[in-house]
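Researcher: Quick test of sequence recovery. Tokens follow.
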């Protein structure tokens, strides 16, 4: 019997999954490939004391920035905070807990969770604040830091195209953290721009197999913000 993974709205796709104190992975890099509609639905649900795993928190008023403004996030596990004044201010005032990670380490901790690897060793961070309280070992004359895999209760991600079985294709740099997060959570919910029937996707283009996707919502409209607009002056 086929399982229906398609839900009519972001709210419906998240129904029964949200609770206070949960850990959520949120895909995207800056504003590229972020699950904006699902983030807005989380805000509207009122769920609080969240731990959110994401490369950053977008910008003020956009993406995860809206959850910071409503103070629904208790802790961020991230690698960068520089473009969000609310993020920086809450951290500096002791209102927001942050676990900083080098960006590659963050990606690998997520990937390791999806691959069933509980921990790994990396040279990144040895001898820095990142290494405090962590195990360090020597391999072939070089020191390595042990990092643990990152798991989540829920992953919310954005894909360009999907079929109704949950097979996903991402568009260019919007791919970023989305594929690894899809594999590392107990439940994965994806918002998509285009939804097709099984067999209509090029099998060689599929990045995330449908086995990792639990729920899908087709977006009627996608608003894509530009984080930093750079233009050349006219001649």
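Model:
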């Amino acid at each position: 019997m086929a399982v229906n993974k398609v839900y009519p709205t972001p709210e419906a796709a998240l129904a029964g999954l949200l609770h206070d104190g949960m850990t959520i992975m949120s895909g995207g890099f800056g504003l590229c490939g972020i699950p904006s509609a699902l983030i807005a639905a989380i805000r509207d649900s009122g769920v609080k004391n969240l731990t959110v795993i994401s490369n950053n928190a977008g910008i003020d008023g956009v993406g995860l920035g809206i959850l910071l403004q409503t103070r629904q996030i208790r802790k961020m596990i991230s690698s960068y905070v520089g473009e969000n004044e609310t993020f920086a201010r809450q951290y500096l005032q002791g209102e927001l807990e942050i676990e900083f990670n080098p960006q590659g380490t963050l990606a690998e901790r997520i990937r390791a969770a999806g691959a069933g690897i509980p921990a790994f060793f990396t040279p990144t961070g040895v001898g820095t604040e990142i290494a405090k309280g962590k195990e360090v070992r020597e391999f072939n004359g070089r020191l390595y830091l042990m990092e643990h895999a990152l798991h989540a209760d829920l992953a919310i991600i954005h894909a360009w195209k999907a079929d109704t079985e949950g097979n996903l294709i991402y568009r260019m740099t919007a791919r970023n953290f989305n594929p690894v997060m899809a594999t590392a959570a107990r439940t994965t919910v994806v918002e998509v721009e285009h939804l097709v029937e099984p067999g209509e996707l090029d099998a060689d283009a599929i990045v995330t197999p449908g086995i990792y996707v639990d729920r899908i919502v087709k977006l009627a409209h996608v608003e894509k913000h530009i984080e930093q607009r750079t233009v050349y002056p006219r001649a």
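The first strand starts at residue 6 and ends at 7.
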